[in-house]
Structures are given as structure tokens and as C-alpha cells.
């Protein structure tokens, strides 16, 4: 009795991998043997970088907030500490958007933080 290989399912699996490899350079887009490795590698990086994107965005927000703070005469750590003591709960994403799109409002926050910290030193 001949060996059954389930040709339709095997072909479908290979076609699925080749379809994912469209746009890859050279043999990686045409030959299953090479496309399989390239797709596995690409999916591994995609999985990792979907998680990494979150920390990279947070880093970007911190850089933007720090730049806006320094333009207003305070550094990032004192600003964030001052926000906490003033009871202002805003996340870094909102703060960075505020710093970019509404500098006057951000200046107001910085003034509140500065005023709060100078009142603590005086008291």
C-alpha cells in the first residue's frame, strides 16, 4: 500500500508560508525551504517588537517632557516629583502631547510645580 502524504494539506501549508514571504528578497520569497526560515525569523521579531514598542514610546514621551521642562527652567525628575506632591495625576503620554500641542498649558503645570516646591521650602 502506498504511503499517504495528504498532498492538499501539505500544499496549503507551503502556500501559506510563501504568501507571508511576499516581498522578501531573492529565494526567501519563492522557495519554501528559505521562506520558512525567513518568515519564522520575521514573526519572532514582530512578536518581540510589539512589546518593545511600548517601552520605546514611553522613552520618547520622557524625552519630550524633559525637553519642554528644561525650556521652562526645571528638569524632568523635579517636575515629575512636583506633580506627584501636587496631586496632579497625568500620564506621560498626555504630558508629552500637552508639551507639544499646548505649551501654555504645560507652562502652567510647570509653574504649579515650581510654586508648590518653593512653598514647601519656605514653610
Automatic annotation (TrEMBL):
GO biological process: ribosomal large subunit assembly; translation
One Gene Ontology term, aspect cellular component: ribonucleoprotein complex
Pfam families on file: Ribosomal_L20
Keywords of the record: Ribonucleoprotein, Ribosomal protein, RNA-binding, rRNA-binding
One example GO MF annotation: structural constituent of ribosome
SUPFAM superfamilies for the chain: Ribosomal protein L20 (SSF74731)
Family: Belongs to the bacterial ribosomal protein bL20 family.
Protein role: Binds directly to 23S ribosomal RNA and is necessary for the in vitro assembly process of the 50S ribosomal subunit. It is not involved in the protein synthesizing functions of that subunit.
PANTHER family with a match to the protein in the record: 39S RIBOSOMAL PROTEIN L20
Record's protein name: Large ribosomal subunit protein bL20
Naturally occurring in which organism (per UniProt): Puniceicoccus vermicola
Taxonomy of the source species: Bacteria, Pseudomonadati, Verrucomicrobiota, Opitutia, Puniceicoccales
